[in-house]
Design goal:
The chain has one domain: Aldolase class I (TIM Barrel), CATH 3.20.20. The chain has an 8-stranded parallel β-barrel, surrounded by 6 helices. Strand 7, helix 7 and strand 8 form a beta-alpha-beta unit. It contains 9 helices and 8 strands. Helix 1 runs parallel beside helix 2 and helix 1 runs parallel beside helix 9.
Length: 202
């Protein structure tokens, strides 16, 4: 799912554009992984937005991941789900989803090892830096990311406060990919993505 190493997480609406407009701009600019975060919406609205994003990502041959909601991921035929520590346990999610992608949010080496042993497809690790996108706790930093990579064989997706200025340090520390929200949405979306992809291609 890591394709070009960059996954766009839809987040709080920080522009005058609609979700569809934002996602279309992102995909046109080279995003090939979209993770849908549908917090604080009705299940009906969440389903409709997820279905729209599934159709869009299909058109661009991009991977589509739904946060938290296994039923909605199945309903729209997403490529997989991303689960937090408080969501349905990984073992039960795997029974339901079969071979689909299951990513797990982790915040410590212990959680990362547990996710790998439980059959996660990848882990999200963070927040690496301070982030205003969500209340994710104290930043873990680059050193913790290096430690995770020493202990984990499955792909590690770094998340939290990652931007064009600190991206190289994250990749140099072993991250297989990065998941980004605010640094893409704020300002010119296409320019932001091109900047990220240019750094990643190095």
């Amino acid at each position: 799912m890591y394709l070009n190493g960059l996954c766009f997480i839809t987040g709080k609406k920080e522009s005058r554009l609609t979700l569809k407009e934002i996602a279309t701009l992102a995909l046109n600019a080279g995003i090939r992984c979209v993770q849908y975060r549908g917090k604080n919406k009705s299940r009906g609205d969440t389903y409709r937005e997820a279905l729209m994003l599934r159709k869009l990502t299909n058109a661009f041959n991009a991977v589509f991941i739904v946060n938290d909601y296994i039923d909605i991921a199945l309903a729209v035929n997403a490529d997989g789900v991303h689960l937090g520590q408080e969501d349905l346990p990984l073992r039960e999610a795997r029974k339901i989803l079969g071979k689909k992608i299951i990513g797990i949010s982790t915040h410590s080496i212990e959680q990362a090892i547990e996710a790998e042993q439980g059959g996660a497809s990848y882990i999200g690790f963070g927040p690496i830096f301070h982030t205003a996108t969500k209340d994710a706790g104290k930043p873990k930093g680059i050193k913790a990311l290096r430690e995770i990579k020493k202990n984990i064989k499955i792909p590690v997706v770094a998340i939290g406060g990652i931007n064009a200025a600190n991206l190289e340090s994250v990749i140099a520390s072993g991250a297989d990919a990065v998941a980004v929200s605010s640094a893409i949405i704020q300002g010119e979306i296409a320019d932001n993505i091109i900047r990220f992809l240019t750094i990643l291609k190095k």
